[in-house]
Structure formats: structure tokens, C-alpha cells
Design goal:
TIM Barrel; 8-stranded parallel barrel; 35 strands; SH3 type barrels; alpha/beta; Copper Amine Oxidase, Chain A, domain 1; 27% helix; 567 residues; 5-stranded antiparallel beta sheet; 3 domains; 12 helices
Length: 567
Amino acid sequence: MSKGKRISKNEIEKKKKIITKIFFTILALIIIFIIAMFLNNVLVLDKNKKINLVINNNNVTSNLKNDILIEDDIIYLSKSDIANFFDKYIYEEKDTNQIITTYEKKIAAIGFDDNVVNINGSNKNIHAHAIKKDNNVYLPISEISDVFNVEITNNEKSKVITMDSLDREQKKAIVKSNISVKSSKKFMAKTIDKIKKGDTVIVISSDDKGNTKIRTENGKLGYIKTKKLENEFTVRENMEEEKQISEKINLTWDYFSQYGSAPDRTGTKIDGVNVVSPAFFYLDDDGNLEENIGTSGQAYINWAHDNNYKVWAIVSNAEAATKSLAITSNIMNSYEKRQNFIESIINKCVKYKLDGVNIDFENMKQEDKDMFSRFIIELTPRLKEIGLVTSVDVTAPDGGETWSLCFDRNVIGNVADYIMFMAYDEFGVYSKEPGTNAGYNWVKLNLNKFLQTEEIKSEKIVLAIPFYTRVWTTDNSGKVSSTTVSMKNTENVIPSGIEKKWDNDLKQNYVEYTKDGNKKQIWIEDIDSLKAKISLVKENNLAGIGSWQKDMETDDVWEMLKMELGL
């Protein structure tokens, strides 16, 4: 007899039962898997219970702040959601009881009573108006889709509303066979739609593993195999906005007061300059936009265009200096007055075939900061519509109430084409102690505030440099005063034999001497000091430079600017 352990019949039966149980369990799992696969490919498992919103092939439903309303086939989107997806500066104008919204090249005003929308100054009849419901404001977005430049489709069957920007690329393709659209690329992904042979789908993207993300005619977003598509075609191309100046900006301001006239520059050329900004427009004491162009100004425009310079005319409130705070405030705080003012700017730009404007508003109330921003928000699309540039002059942050704190640099930098940082008057005419007009360290510090604190894109910032400095005088009593001196005249002011000392922090030459018993100090602007400041343009990839003002410079400035800016 074998010494090995003998297996009993009972044990054999038990093992047979266990094997049989495992077999049927596996068989059941296989059957369940097959049924699940069958159902997953037959049944659509992603039926919307509420309306979904797809904007530019992104399902943004989870980001909606309020439900979408549909009444009488008109689609309403809440003001909060329009702010979230299209216009974060959308504004309720209390005086006129209207909603003001801007987007790219359009500004629209729509009320709560009449079925009319005003777009860029012209009324358009529509089939609805703004409404209020549950303490929320809603706009009939399907009636004003042209404001936001979108194509809107309501897929009632699938409860999906799609909005496609008409300036974005769109590609489509034909489906080669009946197929299920999956929610993801995973093997067991659920079916979210069914498409048939010959259906047209929007192609969103493809990967190198043979998967393509599509949008079905029902507005559903999902995945199919790339091989199931054929005859891909482009419906529309990306419409990139072409910049007026493709290289670094080299702008110079050409200032003459309302009592002067544009300089005669016939036969001259400013090497390297691509934009000139003449003092053409100003606010008068009655708040009207006046012009100082005439025959000399027209000749100036012709000269500039003959030399391929763009003309961005100055629009200033400085000429109404005696009343500028009140006059500017009066215009900024009225929607109708802002629109009239904007209309005047547009008309004059068209009349004189200008290329843009330079808004140079100074001496404003701090409490009008937001309303000045509204003015820029409402002006910019009107100028964009006719291909013109909006540039806005601002001072360094953290200064006086009417000089610095009256600007919201973040909003201006976001909305306007360019924000011009006037990097001078560190120690200005009202300073009680002498100091540099534009020290390198001060310019760099404040530029970093523009970039980091104010979060302005570098390619929108134009660094404005001074072609002047100040001669500071301290008399025996300690009283401080200053006079402005241009770059080209600085050397004539400094007595012979006075030694210049280089300040490496300010990156300027400095002189100090005594005249008529008074102490004189000059922080000199010259080629070396300007070159140091211009290095910040290259280091931070800024849009370029502006210079205040033409005819105060030395002759060697333009060649240096051209070289440093790579023009």
C-alpha cells in the first residue's frame, strides 16, 4: 500500500463543486460583461436632465451661476454669466435703466422695456429686452449674438445650447459608419450619443493613438476612432487681429498748445520712429472736444503718413486746467455724455484719417477712477471697429490722489491696446526737495508694479521716457525751486569745468555747483541714462517706448533708439 495520503470521495466531490461554482461565476461575469458592452453601445447613458451650455467646444455648464432661461424660443443668459464668459465689465447704467456690455469691437446698450438694442451708436430692433427674475438680470443673448460675435444653436432634443465664436477656427468631417460616441477614451466609457454614417461632426482635436474628440449635431462632446472619419474640411479659419505696429513701438509726442499750431516738418524724417502723437484734441472749459488741426495739422498728418508713421492724436483734458477736475468728472459720470464724447472722437478720427488716439487725461478725482475706466471700456471697441488704436497715458502707482490714484491700471491695461507708463516726474515741479526726474531704480520699481501688482501684459506696456530734466535751486534760506531744461540745452546750462559724477543706482550723471550764492543740482538725462531705461524694454519684452517730447532731444537720440529697439 502507498504511504501517500488517500483522497476520499467526499473531498473529490467538494473540489468538483468548487470548480463548477467558479466556472459558472466566471460565465455569469462574462455574460454580464457582454450584456453591459451591448447595452453600452446601444443605449445612450448620458441624457441631460437640465440645459447644458457648450461654448467653443467646452462644456461650461458647471460654471453657470444661474440657470439658462428659454422663453418664446428666446435664450436668456444672466448678467453674471455674461460677465463670466464674455464681458467681465458688463455694467448696469442706473440713470438710463440699461445694461451696457462691450465685447471686442462692439458696445451695446439694452433696456428693460423696449425691444431695441443700440450697437455702436445705432439702434436695432429685436424681439426681446432685458428682464429681471429672482433678483437676477437676464439678457436675450440669442437676440444680441452679433454683439459677442457668436453663433448660437439650441438643440432641444439633447438639451444642449452651443455658442461658437465666429472668429475661431472650426473643422468638420463626415462619419464613415454608424458608431457610438464615448464620454472618454477609456475602454469601458459610456455612450453619450449615437451618430450615423454620413453625419457631419465638428472635429475638436486628435491624438496619436487614433482617437478624435468631436462634437455631434446634438451638441454632445465625446470621442470616436479617427479612422471612422473622412473628408475633413475647414469651415472657417482663425481670425487673428493684426497689430497696427508689428515691431517695437517708437512713439514721440509732438506737443503744441491750443494756441499754437502743428510744427512744419516737411522734408524731415525722424529715423526709427513709427508713431507720432500730435496735440490735436482737447477738452475746453465747457466740456466740448475741440481740435487744433487746421491747415498746418493736415500738412502734419500728410507728412507723417508719407513717412509711414502712424498718427495717434492726443486727446487731452489739460487745456481746461482751471476747471478740469469738474469738467472731466461731469463727463465721466454720465453715460450719455461719455457716448457723445466718444462719438466726437470717432468722427474726428474718421474725418482726418487718423490711426489712433492717445488719451492723456490728468488731474482727475480719485473717486472717478472707475468711471474713467468705463470711458476707456466704451471707447476702445468703437475705435477697434474702424481699425484704430487706443493708447492711454498713466502715471506711476502710489502717487497723489488726482495724479496717480485716479487710474485703475489693471482695467486700462486689460482693455486698451496700450498703456503708456509716463516714467518721469519722480521729483516733479511741486517737490519740496530736489531729486532726479526719472531714476533708473525708480522706473524699474514702478514698472514691476505694472507687471506684477497690476498684472498688465508686458506686450501692452509702452515705457515713456523724458527728453528733459530739471535744474534744482536751493537758496540760502533752504527754499527749493526748479526749472525744466531740455536734453539739448542741458550742456549749455552747466558751467564749464564742472565734473559729472555717475550714479550707478540712478544710472545718471549728476552735477552740483554754486551760482549767485545758490546751490544748483542737475540729474542729467543723456544718451547713457536713456539707454539704461530702454534696457528695461528689452528685459521685460515691453511693447516699446514713448518720448516726451519732440524737439527737446539731442541729435544722437534717434539713432540710439533705433538701434536699441532693433528697428
